[in-house]
Each structure stands twice: as structure tokens, then as C-alpha cells.
Amino acid sequence: MASISTTPAAQPRLKIWQRLSFEETVFGWLFILPAVLGLILFQLGPVLVSMGLSFTEYDIINRPTWNGLENYTRLFQDALWIKSIQVTLKYVVIYVPAALIFAYLVALLMSGRIRGISAWRTMWYLPSIVPSVAAAAVWRWGLHPEFGPINFPLKVLGLPAPRWLADPDWIVPSIVFISLWSLGNSVLIFLASITGVPRSFYEAAEVDGAGIWRQFTTITLPLTSSIIFFQLIITVINSFQVFTSAFILFGSNAAGSVAGPGNAALFYMLYMYRNAFGYFRNGYASAMAWLLFLTVAILTFILFKTQNRWVYYEAGDDNE
Amino acid sequence: MNVIRYAILVGGGILMLTPFFWLVSSSFKTPATIYVFPPQWIPDPFRWQNYVEVFDAVPVLRASWNTVYITMFASIGVIMSSAMAAYGFARLRFRGRDLTFSLLLSTVMLPYVVTMIPIFIMFSRLGWVDSFKPLIVPHWFGGPITIFMLRQFFRTIPLELESAARIDGASRPRIFLQVIIPLARPALVVTSILALVFNWNGFLEPLIYLRKTKLYTLALLVNSLREFESGLDWTHYMMVVSTIMVVPVLILYFLAQRAFIEGIVLTGLKG
Question: Where are its TM segments located (chain B) (predicted)?
């Protein structure tokens, strides 16, 4: 992601403004016109409108009425909102490291000289193209505390079996578990970046007598760190927005409904959805959206700030 | 060392695939045999009738058609509009181009949450709720990731081909349609596949916009089946519809495995 901002620099020929022809400019804007309209209508515009709405009360039927910071002050007194933050943060804290480490390890195992790579790749990748609705449907049974196949071996062996989706403490880990099942995308991306490291680097390291662990920490890890960084950013952004699996397992449109025992599955998005589309509190939900947006933006910003310390970019890497 | 590696890859791989087996196997069970201990691996009785009866119980055919319809038109739209934009960004030189492109790409990081409500309000003002338009029309205005991927590819097409066409007097739209598009087929296949899967699997947007049962997509149908309807447990039908939803994606994967993997890698690398 970091390299996006460097894209303009990659094209010095653009700086010669005199050479730009009128014809090219007209067609240029015409070709990108739909995308520019989309950018304004469906991205930038709505972001601003959403901020405006967050200072109003608005049920769509009546005109929005200005209520200043009331939505925000009410949020901080809303026990369910606080609950939804706890649930979501718990998920982010467990899922992000688990997903990155797990995907990276699987990719490491698949890299190098190995037989039948396309078969392993397929096996690990397939779950990630399963519609999340279908995945949630399967896991609803798979993680069933009494009859589910996950608990079956534990019960047969007489081991303590978690109550998964029925136990408030286990609900977030269960959703993490379901998300980890569809980790294939990250595995493929890590695999491509690991296999992209030139062999000659390892050969040189071997000549110098570096062992496997040293080769990993001094070659593989630094040379794939920019991809790890990119995956970290994407994973963080997405993990704040868990919706489908939680909704299929616990969601409901009914007013006053509870998301799982003790609202333990009340993810931020679920609560926001309920406010906007269940209670028609669009101002309130917009305030929620904006606070989430700010949180994610600040986190992303902090991560970008730390990247100089641990992300390695090859000299001359100009995004081409 | 290698033995352990293969053991983990194979063992883990099989574990990753077992839920597919559960899905298909429970779709042939009765509600009574889904929730039993020990879990049944091979359904007994083996109710293939589920796949017939489900069509009477819920509008599967209708939902399948709706899903196909939305997926097709949304994907065609995103590919066409993105290809156009990608050509502009990759090949034409004009002031403001790179700034616009960076701005566009940065929206990849913008959570859908923030734009969801205003877009919903806009579409409900237009009277588009309970129609497929909100799920299709926005895709005709380009998608940042698709634009990015196509742009990367267009830049690898030799400039000479384009200049030759210019000398022959071809206009920009003509070059785009007759030179660039035919050469970009591999990239168009990759991005189309990603678009198809993305739209096929969509849930939140259909959930927001489609309330009438006859407009349901397969994803919404699965969602509606989880409720106990009139005291009946429809878990087995939920599995049937989920299977119906998964199978086309799997077929697409096996038909175009390489394009799939290329696409995923492209979205993640050099982002």
C-alpha cells in the first residue's frame, strides 16, 4: 500500500507539461469519467454526508434535525455500544495476529521444493471462496456443543469440550475460528511473496554458513515484510467490520433482540446495522460509523508510522 | 523435516476440506439426523428428496435467477467501467491523472461502513429499495481494485502497437476497443472471476436493499432459512441452499484455477 503514494514519481515523463496534448486530456478525462463519478458519488460524497448525518437525528421519513454532538455523547453512555466495542476489540486482538501468523506459517510450509503444490494450494485455498453465508451455515452445526463434529472427538475422549457458540466466553473465539477457515487468500499472497525471494540470496547465505533459522530471519522475513505489512493493514481494516458470520449465527432485525447469549456476539457492525436498519436511527448509526472510521484511520496511520522500523523496501522498488 | 511438512500440509488440507463434506452430507439429512450424537457422517436415511422438496418449500429457482442476474450485470459493469478508467490511467497523459488515481486507490482502505448509510439514503430517495439497481448500478462506476489490476496490465502492452494504430488514424476509443481490450484478455478474465465471486457471495448489501421474498438472492434465502418457520426446523434446507450456492463457485474455481490464483496474488502484491 505504501508504494501507491509513490506512483506519480514512477513516471517522470509526465512532468513535461508542454507535451500534453489537448486531445489526450479530453479523452483521458472521458475514459476515467465513470470512475471519477463513482469516486464522488459512492466514496467521497457519502463520507462527507455521513459526517454531517452524525450530528443529526434522521429516520429517512422526516427531515434530519440538527442535534449537535448529542449522538456522540449518547454513544458513550450506551452500554450496548460499549459492549459492541469490547466484542469487536476482542475479535481484532485475537484474529489479526492469529490470521497473519497462521497464514504465513502455512505459506512457509508450501514454499520451497515441494511436490503436488497445486493440490495443497487448492485444499487450503478453497474454503476462502465459500460464500460467508454458507460457511456460517456449516459452522453453526460444526460448532454445535452437543452434536457438532468439532466437539465429537473431545467428547469421545472424555476431554472438556467448549460450548462454542452457546458460551458467551467462546463466541468470539468461535467466530475467529470460522474466519480462520477462509484464510486462503492471505496464504496465497504470502506464498507468492516468499517464493519471489531470489534463490541466489539463500545460496549466498549458505556459502556464508547461515542456518535455516538465520536465513529465515535475515532473508525471508525482511524481504517479505512489505507484503506482511500490507496484509496487516488489510486484515486490521477488515476485522473491525465482521458482519456476515455474526449476523447469520446470531443476528436479528427484531427490536430488542439479543446477539447471542449476553450479547456476546454484538459486533460493532451488527449493532450499527440494527441502529440504522432496525431502529432507523441513521444519525446515531452515522456517528457510530464515523467513530469506527476514525479508529481504523488512526490505527492505519500509526501502523504506517511504524513501518520504517520493520518494513524493508528494496532500493528502487517503484511499484512497477 | 520434509515428512513433518507434508504431514501438516496434507492433514491440515484435509481438515480444511472436511466442512465441505459436512455441508454436502447434512444437505441429505433430516432435521432429526442433523442434531444427533454421535454425528452422522453418511446420512441415514439418505434424503436426496431434500433437493426436490426444497423447491416447494422456498423460492430457490427464483433466488438463483436473482443471484445470477445481479452477479452478471454487476460484474459486466465493473469490468467495462474499470477497463475504461484503467486505460485512461495507464496510457493517456493529462493533468490531475496521478492525483485522481491515488485518491481512487486510497478508497480501498475506506471501510464500507462509512458510506453505507448515505448510499442507502440516496437509493431509497430514488425509490430503488426493493430493486436490483442498488446492487448493480454502483458497479458501473468502476472498482478501485479492478482498475488498479487492469492498469498494471495495460502498462505492459507495448506502446508500439498503439502508436502504429495512431498512425493509421485510429481514434482513442477505437484503439481501446480494438487494440487494448483484445490484448488484455488474460487480465480481463482474472478480474472478471474475482468480480463474479465477489458479487455472488455478497450478503450485507442484498440484506439492506432486498426485503421482498421474491427478490431474495441465494444468500438471503440461506439467511431466511435459519429461522424456524412455523415451528419447523429447516436446517437441512439451509444446507441444501448453501450447497447450491457453493457449487457454482467451486466449478468456476476448477475451470479457471490459474486465473483465480493469479488474481488473488495480484490484489495482494504490489498493492
Answer: 7-25, 68-89, 101-123, 135-154, 175-198, 234-256
Scan for cell 429517512, then name that residue.
A60
Q: Is A61 within 8 Å of A67 (Cβ atoms)?
A: no
Amino acid occupying residue B208: I
* Contact between chains at A60 and B93 (C-beta distance less than 8 A): no
Determine the longest span between alpha carbons in chain A, in angstroms. Answer: 79
Contact (CB, 8 A) for A75 and A81:
yes
- pLDDT tens across B31-86, in order? 888 888 888 888 988 999 999 999 998 999 999 999 999 999 999 999 999 999 99
Q: How many CB pairs under 8 A join A and B?
A: 306
Question: A292 and chain B: CB distance < 8 Å anywhere?
Answer: yes
Strands A65-66 and A56-57: antiparallel
Reported as a pLDDT band with limits 50, 70 and 90, residue A312 is confident
User: With an 8 Å Cβ cutoff, are A28 and B223 in contact?
Assistant: no
Domain that holds residue A146: 2-310
DSSP 8-state assignment for residue B95:
T
Full set of structural domains in chain B with CATH: 1-48 (no CATH), 54-268 (1.10.3720.10)
CATH code of the domain containing A194? 1.10.3720.10
Partner-chain residue, chosen from A124, A243, A282, that has the shortest CB–CB distance to B117: A282
The nearest CA of chain B is from the CA of A208 a distance in Å of 22
Give the number of domains in chain A. Answer: 1
Residue A315 included in any domain: no
